[in-house]
Structures are given as structure tokens and as C-alpha cells.
Amino acid sequence: MYFKSVRKGLQKVLPDVVAGIDIGTSKVCCYIARLNSSQMHQIIGCGYEASKGIKNGSIVDMEALSNSIARATHAAEQMAQVTINEVFVSLSASLAQSHVVDMTLPISGRAVLDQDIGKMINHAVESAQSLSTEVIHKIPLSYHVDSTRGIRDPRGMFGSVLGTSVHLITTNAGPLRNFLACIERCHLEVTDFVVSPYASGLASLVEDELDLGVTLVDMGAGSTSIGIFYEGNLHHVDHVNVGGGHVTNDIARGLSTPLNHAERLKILYGSAMVSPMASAEERTIVRVPQIGEDDINKGVQVNKSELVRIIRPRIEETFELLRERLKLISDLSKISKRLVLTGGASQLVGVRELASMILDKHTRIGKPIHIQGVDERMRTSSFSTCAGLIALAKKDQKNIHGSHKKVQNDNLSVFGRIGSWLKDNL
After folding, report:
1. How sure is the predictor about 390, in pLDDT bands with cuts at 50, 70 and 90?
2. Which domains does the chain have, with CATH numbers?
3. What percent of the chain has pLDDT over 70?
């Protein structure tokens, strides 16, 4: 009842207002935006709260996570002076799997219609969807009509056979139900779930990167996600279960300091690379409070370079694991020499240089580029996913996403799919 009571006095939600909630391992972030015809998204409310009840993308305490979501959303509503009823919600790539499905449809020499495209995409979804599996995204990568390939929009073209490759991103229905329950406890409805590297890419990548090809690496606290973008579409999603939180844990263990102090040391003094001014770093002394000490001013003193020796192995491990995951992608031609890093852990000093060296790619740090109206601190890499949820609200959801509503009533969905099949095939 906490969330319901604190919303009194706010204006009702406006028709041109959308909201996105990024649920991460370290924080929950909510953006409320007013959509307009320009390329920029006007953020009118934002709020964030320390994330509790979630680990490696999965819920471990529904009550704690619901409270984090409610508080972040309330802060955004207070700033925007509106209430929101529906939200786009991020989903960790650790819960998602990528599949590419090839479909064909005979069209008997006539022109390709919208219904033909919809029928193929629906058949692709049906091939992957079940009572235990939910399709989050259905993204047509390219089309072909007879022997002509690489077609982006086949509508109106004539031929005998229409074909397409559809990128399906799926997840187990169980975790999705848990997230729905958490959102519903906050008196909100989910418009759609969006896998986090997809949202981060839409917020951080420029048009040429999307078209020519780029590897996006979203470095979160609990895991690091990969998104392969090529010819304007998301072609692959993957992850490794290592993130910025593991660096914090390494510092805490290595220096016997509490986790909150380890996080502070990482942010203020941490680096993944030895500075060119190495001798100066050796002389820089950092005071480290010890676990169990009452006086935080007491503690051991260590050189700043000691932090580098703790941090660098974990960051190296992260990029080496990513390199191995990239080698497993079936079509390596889609992997560009361009790399964009985003997420909170990407802001650590030296991460960009280390990524460029290990992955052998031209690397830059990505941050939201299509939003305005928020403090500069809320436009860093840490908030890329949340900004991408707002960007996605301007797209045609019917052509891009699967619906979250199936997991709310499985029996209804079964009959719905049967009805859809009969309508398409009879």
C-alpha cells in the first residue's frame, strides 16, 4: 500500500508520456519522458534506488525488489508531477537466448503483402514459443524474394517465394512471471520487456554504427552483456557472468574492507591500467578502512597501484571471456572492428584501453545521445539502458516485440495461438 498512497496528488498520466524501468543488479532506474516529433526525447522525471532482491539478473527477494522499483518510480513521478500506469522494463541478457529462424512462404507470383510478412514472423515465433518459453523480441533481419537476397522491405515486390531470417530472443517464462508480479505489486503494468543490450544500443549507438556493424558491450554490476548490431538490426545477444560487482568484491576481499568502502575506492581511485605516471601512482597513498573497525579513519594505508593489481585481472578475465563468446558466433562476418562500451563498469579508468587491446577493436565509451532535460549525471553510461527504453517507445512495437501478456494466462494463449493459426492458414 506504500506505493499507492504516495502517488496521491499527482496528475494523471498524459497520452504522450512514456516510462521505462531498468532493473539492474546494483540499481533500479526509472525515466519518464514526453515524446515529440524530434529525434530527442524530453525526460521530465527520473529516479533511481539501490537495487535489492536481485542477483545476476534473477529475482531472489520479490518484496525487496518491489520496494526498490516503487521508490525509484515514485521519485520519477514526483519530479515529472504525473502518474504512470504502464512501463517498458529491461530484462537482463543473462536470462535471454538468441535464435535465428529461417522461414519461407509461397506467394505464387503476386505482390508481397503486409499479411505475408506477419504470417512468416508469427510462424517463426510459434516455432520457438511454448508454455515454458516466451519470445521477447522478434526481429526480421533481412528478406529474399526468389533469388534476390538482402531485401530490407519486400512489400510490393513480385515473386514466387518470399523468405526471411528472424532473430528471436527468448527467455524462460518463469522468471518473466516473477518480474511481472514485482511490477504489478507497484500498481503498474508492463508494456513490453526489452533485453538490456538492445535498449543500451538504441540509446548509445549512432546510425552509421548500427548500419556498418558494431559490437556493444554493456558492463553491468552482475554480468556483462553483448549485442551485435549490423545493417540496422540486432543480430545476436549473449553475456558472461562477470561484472563490476565482482571487481568490488575482489577489492573488499583483497584489502579486507567493507563492500561499501570497496565500491568507493573503486570509483575514486580504481583503474584497470597502470598509468603512464606509474611512479606518481606508487607514491599515492590511499587509506583503507578495515572490516570490523569502529573508526573509519583508522585502517591500513596502501599505494594506489595496489588497487590496479587487484582490479586489472578481473577486467582482463571479463574481456577474455567476451572474446571467447564472440568466437562462437556462427557468422563472424557480422562482427565489426568497432566496439562500444556502456554500463556503469565501463566508466572505470583504463577499461576502454584494456578492451581495445584484448578484443583488438576500435573502442569508445557510449552514453545516451538522444535525451535531454536531465542532469548531466543521469546521462552517463550507467543510464544507457533506461534511456534506450524510452527510445524504443517511439518504435512500432507490433513489428518488433513479442507480448508479455502470454505469461499472465497460459491457457488463453494456447487458444489464441490456435485461433491465429486458423486465421492465417484457412
Report:
1. very high
2. 96-173+409-425 (3.30.1490.110), 207-365 (3.30.420.40)
3. 85
